[in-house]
Design brief:
The structure holds 2 protein chains of 2 kinds. By secondary structure, chain A is an alpha/beta fold. In chain A, helix 3 crosses helix 9 and helix 3 packs antiparallel against helix 13. Chain A has 14 helices and 13 strands. The radius of gyration of chain B is 31 Å and the shape is globular. In chain B, strand 1 and strand 2 form a beta hairpin. Among the domains of chain B are: 43 residues; 113 residues; 153 residues, MetI-like (MetI-like fold), CATH 1.10.3720. The two termini of chain B are 52 Å apart. The chains are: A alpha/beta, B mainly alpha. The interface between A and B is large, with 58 and 57 residues.
Chain lengths: 340, 498
């Protein structure tokens, strides 16, 4: 700290005189530091939160662990988590305070281009959904004409809601409320029939209701919120590594490679599995990692399906269905290019 | 001659009768104070009923229907959906986090030890009867912060040669000032000491512009020029010491006094750079009450001396000093703390050269300290304005210098007057520390709120329980400060009491 202080106080004054070396490759920096610096949400149920022991848990957190495992030979614990607020996340990545963001960040064109970020893929297809009481016997959002809808004011959620109702010629009675917790409370007290926000948030809101099992999330999703891990632009190798960890997790699920059977799968005759696990080819070395990088990743966190089920799936308190996040082979959108 | 009095006039005092039952005793007090008029009666009844209703609901929520033990959210929700009270099991499960944040389990004794040391040093200082106040204060102010820093972070700081030279130059200047107190000290040696110290400053400045080769001494890495600067500073200290040795009989400061500042610097370097086998704990793992206390105590400890200096500067007759002080105070009072914190978190990294990072907690600490110093300055200035001119004139007539006058006559009176204002600022600062949550530091409130995101604990009452708990902890600390301030006020009340 002392060292940093003097560097800062004295160094900043002469910064203009001293020429600085070009930024080193992120992979080398991470290896030298011995830890991946990963920006996560300060707290989003199922995506990033701390358990009773203070360990970080969640779908996004497992992506940090997966990348760390790929770099540090299967040691997924070598991660320094930086909990970041929504305003903090992009400056933190741009200022090199974190190496990657796994912080439920929506992939938009502006962020991908003007903000200088690279989105490695979509680890959760989110979108605005509706929650209603089960005893209303509503099965589709199209039956909601004339219903009162609780919604947070001044958000895209409110705009999407208006668009959806007018596009389907339905009558909308919005109850617009300032904060999301007040929206939840209003719905719980019966001031409105329908609660709407992003689907991942709806499942968490459901747990705050007096009787979670009396409420149901409708299948319609009316907006596109593709959430994904993000890296800085300008380091292609690092971009490739994080991207292929994501694709590797999806391919592993598609090929049936799990945390339990990964050792047996090393003997598999299936050429796709042999390439994924580094038995054949040099795919890991080509991206700057060890050849068995994917074995390390799966040993540490399992495949995408296992990550999903462990953190937000039907057996967790959140009880989120796979839906759009199922593999393409099962009617979902999750699709990864092949390892070959 | 006996006084002529009618027979019906009593000659003896009648025995004193007790007042009628309607005029004394608890019933009378109640009647007089609570039911004197019909309006009073109605108000009393309504408020009494409201208090009972509120108390009943609070007890019902916090104790009767509350859940005290449990492993996860299932404990805090009922099967059939009846409303549950407070979910204290959540607080119980997360208490470690609320206290230490993510501080590693095996290292938490270090935080405990730092707190115990603080209490052991601060409590005797706060109790008037305990002796050795001067030594105690010295330990608390000059030694404890560094010990606590090493305990909490793990120490083993890499201190650059330039920084070491800077510390030795400071020590050299203090030593030279001490040596000067001896009237009989040889003038030549004193002049040598000053020139050496000034040379050291000049070389250090050059060392920061020119880069030169590296020399390693023990664990410290010097650039050649900063090493030279360091040697000059040591030479200056040597000259000062020699001057003290050569000084004649009535010595105000002996060689031992003069060697004290450099000895302190050496001790400081050993503590900070030494390897005590403590595992380093980066500040991003700190959290909970630990961060709240670190931010609040640093702010409190830094703001009082800084505030006093600023207040004196603002009342100074030197225009430049006054102007600087006014600009500083009005700037920091004019911006909201949240802006200061945002600036420290997002703007400072943009100004720094690439690759230079600057600890986030330290940034917030500096912001909070400067911010509260500006408020403190105005509180102290209020006290200074209450001191009559005669006190200053009396002090000057006694032949006291400016600093002696302030230290011995003015400040003790001024500070005593504004104790309520000072403690008010402290309490405000303590609560304002919760704003660091906005910039991603997990203070007590921040850790509690992060706990709400744990899917294993989301229930309808988790959030309310956590917030009530946090509020209670804040209240406990603020109430403690308030009580102690009242105690100090009473003790120092020497003529203004009503």
């Amino acid at each position: 700290m002392m060292n940093m202080l003097i560097k800062t106080l004295l160094g900043s004054a002469f910064a203009a005189v001293v020429s600085l070396p070009a930024a080193a490759a992120t992979l080398d920096e991470v290896k030298e530091r011995g830890a991946l610096r990963c920006g996560v949400n300060t707290g989003l149920p199922g995506f990033a939160s701390q358990d009773d022991q203070g360990e970080w848990q969640g779908l996004d957190v497992d992506y940090c662990k997966a990348v760390a495992a790929a770099i540090f030979d299967g040691d997924g614990s070598k991660v320094e988590y930086s909990p970041l607020s929504a305003v903090q996340r992009f400056p933190a990545l741009q200022n090199n305070e974190v190496d990657m963001l796994a912080r439920n960040t929506t992939w938009t064109m502006n962020r991908d281009t003007a903000l200088g970020l690279n989105f490695v893929g979509v680890n959760y297809y989110d979108g605005q959904g509706f929650m209603v009481r089960k005893d209303l016997n509503v099965t589709s959002a199209l039956q909601l004409s004339g219903a009162t809808v609780c919604v947070q004011s001044g958000t895209t959620t409110e705009l999407n809601l208006t668009d959806y109702f007018s596009a389907n010629n339905m009558e909308l009675n919005p109850v617009v409320i300032e904060s999301q917790s007040d929206v939840n409370a209003a719905y719980d007290q019966g001031r409105c029939d329908v609660l709407t926000t992003d689907a991942s948030g709806l499942y968490a809101s459901r747990l705050e209701l007096a009787n979670p099992d009396e409420h149901v999330v409708l299948p319609e999703v009316i907006s596109k919120e593709p959430l994904g891990p993000t890296v800085r632009q300008g380091d292609e190798q690092w971009f490739d590594i994080v991207k292929w960890v994501h694709f590797g997790l999806l391919n592993a699920e598609e090929l049936g490679v799990t945390q339990q059977n990964v050792e047996e799968m090393l003997e598999s005759e299936n050429p796709k599995i042999r390439r994924l696990l580094g038995v054949d080819g040099s795919f890991g070395e080509d991206v700057g990692l060890a050849n068995d990088w994917m074995v390390d990743v799966i040993r540490a966190v399992g495949n995408y399906g296992e990550i999903f089920d462990r953190n937000i799936g039907p057996d967790t308190p959140l009880k989120i269905q796979r839906g759009m996040n199922a593999l393409w082979t099962k009617g979902g959108l999750q699709y990864a290019p092949p390892v070959r | 001659m006996e006084e002529q009095v009618a027979a019906y006039v009593a000659r003896d005092q009648k025995p004193v009768l007790p007042p009628p039952p309607s005029e004394h005793g608890p019933l009378a007090i109640v009647r007089k104070n609570l039911f004197a008029t019909p309006v009073d009666a109605v108000l009393t009844t309504v408020l009494l009923l409201f208090s009972l209703w509120a108390a009943w609901n609070i007890i019902q929520w916090a104790l009767v229907t509350a859940v005290f033990v449990g492993g996860d959210r299932v404990a805090c929700v009922t099967e059939e959906g009846a409303p549950v009270g407070a979910c204290w099991a959540f607080v119980g499960a997360k208490l470690g986090q609320f206290t230490y944040g993510l501080y590693p389990m095996g290292e938490r004794w270090r935080v405990d030890l730092a707190v115990v040391l603080l209490v052991a040093l601060a409590v005797p200082l706060a109790i008037p009867r305990v002796p050795y106040k001067r030594l105690n204060a010295l330990l608390l102010i000059a030694v404890y912060p560094f010990v606590a820093l090493v305990l909490l972070t793990g120490g083993g700081f890499q201190i650059s040669g330039g920084w070491i030279a800077f510390l030795f130059i400071l020590a050299a200047f203090i030593s030279a000032t001490l040596a000067r107190a001896n009237v009989t000290a040889p003038a030549l040696l004193l002049r040598t000491a000053t020139i050496m110290a000034l040379l050291a400053v000049a070389v250090l400045l050059v060392a920061n512009i020119l880069s030169s080769g590296r020399v390693t001494f023990l664990v410290f890495r010097f650039s050649v020029l900063s090493g030279v600067s360091c040697l000059f500073a040591l030479a200056s200290i040597g000259a000062s010491t020699l001057a003290a040795v050569r000084a004649g009989a009535p010595r105000a400061t002996g060689p031992a006094h003069i060697l004290l500042p450099p000895a302190f610097v050496v001790g400081l370097l050993i503590v900070l750079a030494g390897d005590f086998g403590l595992r380093p704990v980066p500040t991003n793992l700190w959290g909970g009450l630990l961060v709240t206390l670190v931010v609040a105590l640093t702010g409190i400890a830094a703001s009082l001396p800084l505030g006093i200096l600023l207040a004196l500067a603002r009342r100074s007759h030197m225009p430049a000093v006054r102007l600087v002080s006014i600009i500083f105070i009005e700037f920091w009072r004019g911006v909201p703390l949240i802006t200061v914190l945002f600036m420290s978190a997002f703007m400072i990294p943009l100004f720094l050269p690439e690759g230079v990072s600057f600890n986030q907690l330290l940034r917030a600490l500096i912001g909070v300290a400067l911010f509260s110093a500006a408020y403190m300055a105005e509180v102290v200035r209020g006290g200074l304005q209450a001191i009559p001119k005669g006190q200053y004139e009396g002090a000057m007539a006694l032949g006291l210098g400016y600093w002696q006058m302030m230290r011995l006559i003015v400040m003790p009176q001024a500070i005593k007057l504004v104790i309520p204002g000072i403690v008010n600022t402290f309490i405000g600062l303590f609560k304002d520390t919760s704003l660091v949550y906005i910039i991603g530091l997990a203070d007590l409130l921040g850790t509690v709120r992060r706990g709400f995101a744990d899917p294993n604990w989301i229930t309808p009452t988790t959030a309310a329980t956590g917030l009530v708990f946090a509020a209670f902890v804040y209240w406990l600390f603020c109430f403690g400060m308030s009580r102690y301030s009242i105690f100090v006020e009473r003790r120092l009340q020497t003529g203004y009491s009503r």
